[in-house]
Specification:
By secondary structure, the protein is α/β, with parallel strands linked by helices. Helices cover 37% and strands 17% of the residues. The protein has two domains: 151 residues, Aspartate Aminotransferase, domain 1 (Alpha-Beta Complex); 240 residues, 3-Layer(aba) Sandwich (Aspartate Aminotransferase, domain 2). A seven-stranded mixed sheet has the order 4-10-9-8-7-5-6, sandwiched between helices. Strands 1-2-3-13 form a four-stranded mixed sheet. α3 runs antiparallel to α9, α10 packs parallel to α12 and α11 crosses α12. The longest helix is centred in the last third of the chain and has 22 residues.
Length: 397
């Protein structure tokens, strides 16, 4: 079927919850994808930071195919071999001691919220339940994670939100110290805000939050759904800031395309007991087999060094463009997550990129977000930079 035929069927049968671009993709290999009409594109959004190994990566395909041929699902009533192996890999390469598996980033954040409240309730009793979150954050679309998200545009039509969240300015330690009360149980923060415009905090910010949590016995919880699993050139985004949390929410790149989320926590923070939390599909055989293949590949010799080097190449090019195009206000990010803030809406440029054969998306309306697969080549980046050079000039005119 053609793009037009598939889009017509979608408009008839699929809920209209997304502002979709007018294209249907049917195949991918590495950093390239093809639509139903056979047109080739370079992928610089990775399914919103999901396809960290690109498309159809041999190790990932092999792991999923082999597992599907053995067993796909039973239940968390039983021990699941690839789930155990993935939990071991995550704890061996992080601050954590225990892992709870779910399916998505919003579930990981939702579970982290429950975990923080359970930790505090067990230790201090009722009333100590408030979680501090930050302006322009994004933690998901289920009711608790939506309530934790401090962006009004996501709230409209879904009020009343759940109580127990307090929004504070991002990258402002003093406001956090002043906000802590006898009701506070945790701080939930993205080490780098993705959906909020690829905002990178100052080096001392996360360390300041760690000190506040230690002084008040609060759980420090990092939402690494978008920046974890190598996206920044390190395995975890918080490694750039020399600080560790008590709890970390993961998803997106963890499965490389398979739906898997995780809550990684220290033994101290893992307050869940039998029956406190659960998931029918969380940690299933297929998803965690995929996760094992992703982690093994990302931790392979030279992989993260290559991501950091490729990221340096990307940012050198973007900063050079910013110096020549006054409509670019700022370039932000780390590794292979980049935000280009313009002095006007960026949506028209993203649509022009699609027409030219590049997949890029926006974050907030004025920020272009670039999230290529971690296996992207420098010559592919150069092609994108060449396109952006001409497109920025045209947009300014």
């Amino acid at each position: 079927m053609s793009n037009a035929e598939l889009i017509a069927l979608a408009e008839k049968h699929v809920a209209p919850t997304y502002g979709r671009y007018p294209v249907a993709f049917v195949r991918g290999e590495g950093c390239r994808v093809w639509d139903a009409d056979g047109k080739e594109y370079l992928d610089f959004m990775s399914g919103i930071a999901v396809c960290n190994l690109g498309h159809s990566h041999p190790a990932l395909v092999s792991a999923v195919q082999e597992q599907a041929g053995r067993i796909m699902h039973l239940s968390n009533f039983y021990h699941i071999e690839p789930q155990i192996r993935l939990a071991e890999k995550l704890t061996a390469n992080s601050f954590g001691d225990k892992v709870f598996f779910c399916n998505t980033g919003t579930e990981a954040c939702e579970g982290a919220i429950k975990l923080a409240r359970k930790y505090s309730a067990k230790k201090y009793g009722e009333g100590r339940h408030e979680i501090l979150t930050f302006e322009m954050s994004f933690h998901g679309r289920t009711m608790a994670s939506l309530s934790a998200t401090a962006q009004e545009k996501f709230h409209k039509g879904f009020e009343p939100l759940l109580s127990g969240f307090r929004y504070l300015p991002f990258d402002d330690v003093e406001s956090v110290a002043a906000a802590v009360s006898d009701k506070t149980c945790a701080i939930l923060v993205e080490p780098i805000q993705g959906e909020g415009g690829v905002r990178v905090p100052s080096p001392e910010y996360l360390r300041g939050l760690r000190e506040i949590c230690d002084a008040n016995d609060l759980l420090l919880m990092f939402d690494e759904v978008q920046v974890g699993v190598g996206r920044t050139g390190k395995l975890w985004g918080h490694e750039h800031f020399d600080v560790t949390p008590d709890v970390m929410a993961l998803a997106k790149g963890l499965g490389g395309g398979a739906a898997v989320g995780a809550i990684v926590a220290t033994d101290k923070a893992m307050a869940f007991e039998k029956g406190d939390h659960g998931s029918t599909f969380g940690g299933n055989y297929i998803a965690t087999a995929a996760g094992c293949a992703v982690i093994d590949t990302v931790l392979g010799p030279g992989f993260l060094d290559r991501v950091a080097d490729t990221g340096d190449h990307l940012f050198a090019g973007l900063n050079e463009l910013a110096g020549r195009h006054p409509i670019v206000k700022e370039v932000r990010g780390k590794g292979l997550i980049a935000g280009i803030e313009l002095d006007r809406e960026a949506g028209p440029l993203a649509l022009k990129a699609l027409e030219a054969g590049f997949l890029i998306i926006t974050a907030v309306p004025t920020v272009l977000r670039i999230l290529p697969p971690l296996v992207v080549e420098k010559d592919m980046i150069d092609k994108l930079l060449e396109f952006l050079d001409g497109a920025l000039k045209e947009l300014a005119a």
